[in-house]
Amino acid sequence: MFLANTHADFGAPLLIEDAEMLSLAAAGDVERHFSQRQDHRPTPLHALPALAKELGVAGVFVKDEGHRLGLGSFKALGGSYAVIRLVIEEAERHLGRGLGLDDFDRPEVRAVAAGMTFGCATDGNHGRSVAMGAELVGAKSVIFVHAGVSEKRIEAIARYGAEIVRVAGTYDDSVAEAARVCEARGWTVVSDTSWPGYEYIPGLVMQGYTALLCEALRQMDQPPTHVFVQAGVGGIAAATAGHLALRYGDDRPRFVVVDPARAACLYESAKAGHPIKVQHGEPTIMAMLECYEPSLVAWRILSRVADAFMTVDEEDAVSIMNRLARPVGGDPAIVAGESGGVGLAGLVAVARDPVLGEALGLTAQSRVFVINTEGATDPERYAALVGLTAETVADQTSERG
User: Which residues does the annotation mark as catalytic?
Assistant: First the structure.
């Protein structure tokens, strides 16, 4: 399913607070913070010339977040950054003086952090990021996981010292439970989705994602003409679309939001003209995108700067995982988890439909940017879907390199 953005706000400027959050200056500060962390390295940008030729475009470029900070997901940038920002802000209040983001490891800052507890709901990746940030500064973390989160992903969160709380139901149920418990106990919720009265912290999470955009745009010889990004609640899609709109203005690339058909909360919101909660049905294999209600901040941004919304089916996601694992024509092999290649799946669907391609202005001169948002964060599931281990696929790239 494909839907052009016809919202009344489409083309309007971002609200001041959203523009400040995703500005070039803010993104530069975020990138400087990560550059000072010993565990950080820029992730690769892969060109896929054989796939580009097959799709009839000039270039396809994949930012591979499967290598990010040892967590294997772009979400390593969001939750951990927000936790550190919040600890610094609390330390400034306690100490009565200004601090920088690089002061997070000072003894007096860690003393403040020791009295703080951060909680969040997760499908897996965001919870790992929040737990990692809390461990980094000496704070506590409590992570709420719903019934659909695999044991492997729960184990990966717990390795960072997090307390795990299991919640019956869906991701949205775990979000509500995390908010309830954290409020009752005086803990700080670090959510990647927003709701009325709760926007600042999800904004920090989104701001953390801009580091990968700064990297990617430096790694490309020319700016992209089209961008396809997958969405759960919409955080990475909105951060990408909003930052690109601020950076390039009227020359910004065409932007498409890609939802799983079984959890299409942004597509259905675009169809309705306002944020809606979609009904929970059969779970999607795209586990990191299984969200049934959009973030209000993300919707506010995407309604202004996303050109279109679309959905992809289960088999599309699995097909892309396998295509990236078994590339043709000299393209590099890429390990993409169940949700990682969904933006690319959207591009493939549009490129193979002449009507949709024409509607988006996709031509032989188009340069398309997508984000592999996760690697094999559940290695057993990855191997079952691809028929190869993540290590085997990664070795292909090493051999070609």
Answer: 75, 123
